Amino acid sequence: MTTSPSAVNPSAATGLRIERIQARILDIPTIRPHKFSFGSISRQSPVIVQLWLSDGACGFGEAATIGGPSWNEESPESILHAINHYLAPAVQGKDAARFEQLIKQMDAVCKGNRFAKSAVEMAAIDAVARSLNVPAYQLLGGKLHNSLPLAWTLASGDSAKDIEEAERMLEVRRHRIFKLKIGARAPADDVAHVSRIARALDGRASMTVDINQAWDGNTARRYVPDLIDAGVTLFEQPVAQWNEEALAALTATLPHTALVMADETVCSPQDAMRLAKNKACHVFSLKIAKHGGLIRTRAVAAVANAADIGWYGGTMLETSIGSAASAQVFSTLPGTHHNCELFGPQLLVDDIVETPMQLRDFELVLPDGPGFGVTVVPERLERFDRAREGLTAVHVDMGRATATTSN
Ligand code: MUC
Ligand code: MG
Questions:
Q1: Ligand 2 centroid vs 53 CA: distance in angstroms?
Q2: Residue 212 alpha carbon, nearest atom of ligand 1
Q3: Is residue 163 over pLDDT 70?
Q4: Alpha carbon nearest to ligand 1 atom 9, residue
Q5: In 287-302, which positions are buried (b, 16+ CB within 10 angstroms) versus exposed (e)?
Q6: Which of 177, 218, 324, 407: CA 20 to 30 A from 143?
Q7: What is the rounded CA–CA span in Å between residue 46 and residue 52?
């Protein structure tokens, strides 16, 4: 759609020009291996963007992938390349406060690459909010939630270890919603694993599963009822990203005690529209990276709200920068929420901000303070910077189920 020239005045600049952008990859080990249907990670490699404005304000953005390009098409290396060679030159010198215009400028030079675009948009929003000395949520519609219940993912791959971890989280009142990563083993073994954990927790926590696209439609039809009997209430992306028919069939047949959540299948607002039209799920997992930024996250959430679909505050296991940015936008969203999972910083061996977001009584307190409400410690960025001397290689342990290969 084109806008009539009289509707906007492109010369009415806010004076907050983008002066400089710098991007780098960090390599931060995780506290334990984190296992998915498609492999296992023992470190996260987020791309961190730093963006300076003409008035001196500086903002941070982040794009985290999981297992290089294993979760979707983008990798830390492709993100860094897209930012350095296409996105940064496209927005340099431009008005940072015109977020929609920045997205248009990035879209004009680069198709797709939503993770990369989200990191640049995120840094612009943080910088502008800091320059105006307001929390980012003030630029995104204002705050509706002060806190959200916070889920934790049990993904060691071992039932006994997962039970021990869940008990510790319950004891310190950090989490009582557990997402189990399944799909790497035979489905019957997964059912046994989930049932063991459910029996041990004995109704003290709610249980969800993320299959990360591992099943076909028939496998989902066969094993989802067993998992519901075991106590699972939310089924995240059981089938392949493209398999919306199977997702819709499952959604139509689930009893009212359980919900289907789309994750990899819902990226753009157009995906959201199609899923809504086809009644293919009950909940969208929202993630700023896969939607292409905070503004587009709000667009996907608007479709959810209009279609009576719930939302879940998803994560790509970001550091405190991406997690706080996610928290800022989630705090503004109307509609029915199904909690959040912004636990990325806790899965990493160290945090890169001064004071992490607070976790209190099973909830994540959504941050106040200028920008995203967190202060980055530059020395921590240096410590984990991939480009620093002696650490140039990627060490991502990927592979099917038990086998791991390193690059
Ligand atoms: C995913 O697919 O949801 C989110 C939490 C977690 O443990 O993995 C991610 C990715
Ligand atoms: Mg998922």
A1: 35
A2: 2
A3: yes
A4: 316
A5: bbbbbbbbbbbbebbe
A6: 177
A7: 20
Name which of 54, 55, 79, 59 is nearest 68 in CA terms.
79
Per-residue pLDDT of 26-81, as tens digits, reads 999 999 999 999 999 999 999 999 999 999 999 999 999 999 999 999 999 999 99
Q: CA angle 344-337-137, nearest 5°?
A: 65
Distance between CA 51 and CA 20 in Å, rounded? 6
181 is catalytic: yes
Check pocket membership of 62 for ligand 1, CB cut-off 6 A.
no
Q: Do 112 and 291 form a contact (C-beta atoms < 8 A)?
A: no
CA dist., res. 206 & res. 180, Å (int): 11
What's CA 140's distance to the chain center, in Å?
18
The DSSP line for 157-187 is S-HHHHHHHHHHHHHTTS-SEEEEE--SS-H
Ligand 1 close to Cβ of residue 315 (< 6 A) = yes
Rounded to the nearest integer, the mean pLDDT of the chain is: 93
Question: For residues 402 and 39, is the Cβ–Cβ distance under 8 A?
Answer: no
Say if ligand 1 is within 6 A of residue 210 CB.
yes
Token pair 């139509």 is found at 252
Of the candidates 35, 117, 179, 181, the residue annotated as catalytic is 181
Residue 263 in contact with ligand 1 by CB distance below 6 A: yes
pLDDT in tens, 96-138: 999 999 999 999 999 999 999 999 999 999 999 999 999 999 9
Looking at ligand 1, which residue's alpha carbon is closest to its atom 10?
A: 316
317 lines ligand 1 (CB under 6 A): yes
Distance 209 CA to ligand 2 centre (A): 9
Nearest atom in ligand 1 to the alpha carbon of residue 287 is 3
Whole-prediction pTM: 0.93
Q: What are phi and psi of 295, to 5 degrees?
A: -65, -45
276-293 pLDDT, tens digit per residue, is: 999 999 999 999 999 999
